[in-house]
Sequence to fold (612 residues):
Amino acid sequence: MTRLLLFYKRTQSAIGRIWTYLAERKAPWFFVGPPILILFVLIIYPTIYLYRLALSRYDMAFMMDPEFIGLRNFVKMFTDASFLTAVKNTFYLSLGAVIVEFMLGLGLALLLYEPLRGSFLVKPIIIIPMMIPPVVVGLNFRLILDAFGPINGLLQLLHLPVIDWLGVPFNARMSVIMADVWQWSPFIFIIVLAALNAIPTQLLDAARVDGASAWQLFRHVIWPMIIPSVAVAITFRFVDALKLFDIVYMLTYGGPADATEVISLYVYRTAFRFGQLGYASAMGVVLMLFSIVVVWGILRVMNLEKRLEWGEK
Amino acid sequence: MNINTRGKITRILTTSLRYVLLALAMLFYLFPIYWLFMTAFKFPGDVTSNPVIWFPTRATVDNFRLLFGYTGPVWNTAEYAGRSFYQSVSPYLLNSLVVGVISSLLGILLGASLAYGIVRFHVGRSRLYSWILSLRMVHPVVIAIPLFLVFRTVHLVDSWIGLSIAHLLVSLPFAALLLVGFFSDVPNDLVDAGRLEGLTHIGAFFRIALPLVAPGLVAVFVISFLNSWNELLIANALTNSARSQTFPVFTTSFIQVERGTAWGIAAAGGVIGMLPMLLSIFYIQRYLVRGLTMGAVTD
Fold:
């Protein structure tokens, strides 16, 4: 009994010592290890799995195992008219949405830049759309753009012809952009406003004293100061616009025909409605590469890296 | 007219122009919300009537009662008694709540530990930081496909735990990046003082560092919860019954065309879906920009 107790005590102290050693000497791994492991399991492993799936045929409907078919999925993709339409739509919809959001957000921020009585109320109101569930935004715009909804009601009131917002391809695209702009232009507004408020007033005063016009002031003083923030805002918006899913799902479900079909919806349907997991994975791989290229391109175009380096020094 | 009065007139004109533009913008942002609330309290006949009813004169809460599975007579008519076409939203709200809380709590715990490791021990430095930031670029549909297959083999599809783990995909990097900012503001001396008093690294983390970033933790919790609450794609892919389907997945049932759209009930659902946001918006507005850009921009 005594020996058992002694053994127990010794082991305990040994474990304790190892524990203390690990907790003290290898402390960084205590903190970083578990989360990295989880991220690895959640992201790295699925990504590798995705690449493997992309090279195989795996149809859930036939209950068969994945079958290696090489690059055939990728070949199929470039002859798949629906996919090409989805790519085109995603590109135009994100570009349109981001441009309008940028102009609206920048305009609004410049509107509120100089002090205006009551402008403190604007920020709490304007951030509301961003946190509304996108599904609700889609639903709500479906309601507002309904044939008998308030927008058409307004047109009627003004004796203008009513518009079939969701039934005509061009209008449906505009509607999707409108909903996205409603939800996300506040994002650009808030970031740009923060950047504007960070500009030292002496700079503006100096330019004014030198007789700069409003446009010159904007072009040569304000714009160079806010461009890093603008670049960050646009990058984030563009990345998220490529993820456009919820609003389209609720508002048009890709329709009419495939006028608002976007990549995420098409991949989603291919995978989870039609069960073609292999083909969907191949499209996923392309989507992933595409977003990397887009982000890289935006940073390049806005020359952000250089500016950031310059800013840090 | 001297220069002074002309300047005054110009100023008044500019100011009024700014107010007009601002009012138009506010109308644009507030009208859809107003319309959703109005529709939620309208009688079915008033929703898509012609001409449009801008300011309803009669209201009903029966849309909400139907939404929660009430089957009695509604809208002053007896004909609806005993037949509700709608599933109750309650189990879906519960699922959303549970999944949101679990994934946000796990996300915060793991994210805080990761952030602390980065800030205090400089693990991986900026490289690890930008890797985590780049995770935001990952498209959810891309991860959903392999994750679905993995979850199917380990029987996590259609369960609270499975969906919570999947939502960690967003909440963990999010919490880590935001808390890096908060931990950077904690003076190293404080933690060192605790260490001198005999605390282990882990003790110092829990007893000194974490309490100091408490406001950040709350903000991160609320925003991750809202992210999880709003998320549709992953939830839709990884669930298939009322056991674990979340509120956004439930919302998609409103647009199924065969049923025709019951706008009143759908709008009532929308109002319910906005509640967590409306309850917390004043608290999180200070952290929202930081949160939405994952700490890349501080307001």
Summary: The first helix of chain A runs from residue 2 to 25. Chain A is about 75% helix and 0% strand.
